[in-house]
Amino acid sequence: MPYQVRLALPAAGATFGDATDADVCSMAGALRTTLARLDTLLDDPPYNVIVRSAPVGVSNFHWYVDVLPRLTVRAGFEIATDLAVNIVDPETAAAELRSADPGGCGERS
Fold first, then answer.
1. Cα–Cα distance between 25 and 109 in angstroms, integer?
2. CATH T-level fold of 5-89
3. In principle, which of 23, 69, 86, 95 could form an S-S bond with 19, CB 3.0–4.6 Å?
4. Domain ranges of the chain
């Protein structure tokens, strides 16, 4: 998806439920900054935030968070093939997000 962001901690455990307070705090800060940058760059788009955690019994996994801005509508090709079309080059989106200054240390004003 255009401007999709995946947030992951280097040493995250398999499940969100086992995350330490420090891990949750770090992820919350990164999520706050990411959402502020998306707001600045894309004028407060609708989005979904999904916490991905290990399925039951799987230990070789690191939990992470996906942020999915809702900028496009699935059309014929996507519906027929179940493939997503990304209309924004990922490198361009990353550079734009890095340069979007939300001000206030990632907090909305």
1. 20
2. HIT family, subunit A (3.30.428)
3. 23
4. 5-89
H or E stretch at 66: strand 64-69
Global model pTM greater than 0.85: no
DSSP state of 23: H
Give the list of residues 6+ apart from residue 29 with CB closer than 8 angstroms, or none.
106
User: Pick from 49, 22, 39: which is nearest to 97 by CA?
Assistant: 39
